[in-house]
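Handout for the seminar on molecular recognition.
Each group receives one record of this type.
Step one: identify the two inputs.
Step two: read the structure output and locate the region that could contact zinc ion.
Step three: write two sentences on what you found, then compare them with the reference statements printed after the record.
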Amino acid sequence: MAEDHHEAIISKEVFERVQVMIQKHIDEHGIIKNMGKYHNKYPFSGIIICGECGNKFKRQTQSTGIAWACSTHLYDKKNCSMMFIKDEAIKAAFVNMMNKLIFSYKQVLLPYYDAICLLDTDENLQEILGLKNNLQRNVDRKNDLRKLRVNGFLDSAMYNQELRRIEKDNEEIRTALQNLERAEENGSIKETKKLLHFLESADMLTKFSDELFTDFVNNIYVYERTCIGFRLKCGLTLKEEVCTGTR
Ligand SMILES: [Zn+2]
C-alpha cells in the first residue's frame, strides 16, 4: 500500500450533491434497508456507481481474482469505456481512506462537523417558518387574483402575468426551503458524530472490514478507473486513488 498524503477533497458542489443523494437514499431505502442488507452477500453489491454512464458495477470472477465492472461496459464497450476495478484495490483504497481519516480527522472532520452544526440552529428554524409563511401568503394572493379575474377586474394577460410571477416566487421559496430542511433531516450530524466517535479511539486499520465499510459508506463513485470517491453517510465524499497494478 503506497503511503501518500492526498488531501480530502470536499468542495461545496460535492457536499451539496451528496446531501441530495443521501436524502434520496433515505427516501428509497428507509424501510427496506435491513432487508437489502440481508440479501446482499458482498458489501459493494449495487453501490458502486460508474462516473461515465451512471450505471452500477457488477461483481466478476476473473482468472486473476474478483473484480467489479460497469454493467453498461460489460454489455457493450461502445456505450461506456470504464474498465473494471479489482475488488482488492477497492478494499485497499477504503483502508487508505480510513487511515487518513484516523490520522487527520481533526483537520478534516471536525471543521465539517462544526459547519453542519451551524446549519442546524434556531435561526435555521426561524427562516423555515418565514418561508412557509411566504408560501401561504402566495396562496392567498392567488385566491384574490382569481376573484378579481372572475369578477372582470383583471384581463387575462394581466392575470396570467401576475400568476407567473407568483409561481416563480414560489419556486424560489421551495428551493430555499429544501436546502434548509435537508440540513435538518438528513441525519448528517448524527452520522458525523458516529464517525468521529469511532475515529477518536481507532487504531490504524491493517485490513478491510465489511462491517466498518457498511457502517460509514453509502456508496462508491468511480470518477476514473484510478480514482474513486467514498460517499460517506456523514455527507462527505472522500476521493481515493486506486491501484491498478495487475491488469
Ligand atoms: Zn459505465
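Reference statements: Residues 122-185 form one domain. The helical segments are 12-29, 33-39, 71-75, 87-119, 122-150, 156-185, 188-200, 210-216.
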